[in-house]
Design goal:
The protein is an alpha/beta fold. Helices cover 45% and strands 17% of the residues.
């Protein structure tokens, strides 16, 4: 059924259609509308056989989901930004216990200074926690990926984060094809847990593991993620057969056939990049786009095959590893080992800064002309940066540093405002 609705409400519909048995909710922007929508459905009786649990924190939200999943329930929660950091211990516990929890991460920047707008810093901070991470380009894909996420999680007995750009997707209204319950039931079978905590048959899970076996435990977690590389394309194909849409999988190629330059990115920015690439194609530039849906596990071979014919790779990423540079680009470089292909990291959109076609057009022409630095910050205001750095240098020589830094932060904040 085609419906004009907010992205968050579409995701809430997808989760409800997946028949969750326990939903653990704590509000934090920009994911709040998702759990609000689910709470309304439970209260009204539109979503039955489901317990909606209001908790006191994000840590509690995932902890309750862990308990529910361990007891054999299909469990769901959602979070963002500092909320994901607050539940960090539980994030590792969920994957270490092999629990098939599905969690939406409405991607948002991490402070300080406080920022509620979108980038990918939050989910990237948990990239090594053992969860599968899949990124949505559109709200339609966000809906589709949540239904697929329950299949993936339960077939592998691993937790899945579905990452969607905060505000850009969560609060955007657009036409979305919402499936009916019969379709979802045909695609997503009743949950049959691999392990269940039962008082009548007591077992221990998550017991201490010593040095003699901990490496093996971690390797097995890695091996299960590698199994997802084979499973996710199959699940995406089955989804296409049932719902008639090509959604999910590992990667999304766009105009790659003769591309000498390939742009790689995650999430909603792919739409703007594709529009820019279309314009460049009309100018005769041989350029294409490769969207990454599965960030964890990282599909090295699929990416390697897709970019085989390119001379250069430009990775546009909405995250930044302070002290080293790009995050996604570093993983992409592992896919081009032993090849002469150059990989350029472009940091863009941090804290919700707009990524415009005009800026991308200029940037990509520089890349095609081999004039791009290996690490580039799109639309960085060097006048602010240099002024702050120069002031800090003077204060290291002559005066109190703390007062100067506070003044510099105020200068940057007022300049942005």
């Amino acid at each position: 059924m085609l419906k004009q609705c907010e992205g968050s409400h579409a995701v809430a519909q997808a989760v409800a259609l997946s028949r969750p048995e326990v939903i653990c909710a704590y509000p934090i922007s920009p994911q709040t509308h998702i759990v609000e929508g689910l709470g309304e459905m439970v209260k009204s009786g539109a979503l039955t056989s489901c317990e909606f649990i209001n908790v006191e924190s994000e840590f509690a939200a995932l902890s309750v989901a862990i308990g529910a999943s361990a007891a054999g329930a299909r469990a769901y929660t959602a979070t963002a930004s500092q909320g994901l950091l607050f539940m960090a211990e539980a994030v590792y516990n969920a994957s270490g216990l092999g629990l098939p929890i599905v969690m939406t991460v409405a991607n948002r920047a991490i402070g300080a200074p406080i920022n509620i707008w979108n980038d990918h810093t939050d989910s990237m901070s948990m990239r090594d926690a053992g969860w599968l991470q899949i990124f949505a380009e559109t709200n339609q894909e966000a809906l589709d990926l949540h239904i697929q996420a329950f299949r993936i999680a339960e077939e592998l007995s691993l937790p899945v984060m579905v990452c969607m750009d905060g505000f850009i997707l969560t609060h955007a209204y657009e036409r979305i094809d919402i499936p009916d319950q019969a379709q979802v039931d045909r695609y997503l079978p009743t949950y049959e847990p691999r392990q269940v905590l039962d008082p009548n048959a007591p077992v221990t899970i998550g017991a201490m593991v010593g040095p003699e076996a901990f490496t093996e435990v971690r390797y097995l977690a890695h091996a299960k993620q590698m199994q997802a590389l084979d499973l996710m394309p199959k699940i995406a194909e089955e989804f296409k057969q049932v719902f008639g849409r090509d959604s999910g999988g590992l990667i999304k190629p766009y105009r790659l056939d003769d591309a000498e330059t390939i742009v790689i990115a995650l999430g909603s920015v792919l739409g703007t990049i594709k529009d820019t690439v279309d314009d460049l194609r009309e100018e005769g530039v041989k350029i294409g786009v490769l969207g990454i849906t599965s960030f964890r596990p990282f599909p090295i071979q699929a990416i390697r095959d897709a970019i085989a014919g390119a001379k250069r790779i430009v990775v546009i990423e909405k995250c930044f590893a302070v002290g080293i540079g790009g995050i996604v680009s570093r993983d992409v470089r592992s896919a081009v080992q032993s090849r002469p292909q150059q990989v350029f990291a472009v940091i863009a959109g941090l804290g919700g800064r707009a990524i415009t076609k005009a800026s991308l057009h200029k940037l990509l022409l520089e890349a095609v002309a081999d004039k791009l630095e290996l690490l580039t910050f799109l639309d960085l205001d060097w006048s602010i940066v240099n002024r702050v750095l120069e002031r800090e240098k003077k204060q290291r020589r002559s005066g109190p540093v703390a007062e100067g830094i506070l003044r510099d932060i105020g200068t940057v904040a007022s300049r942005i405002g």
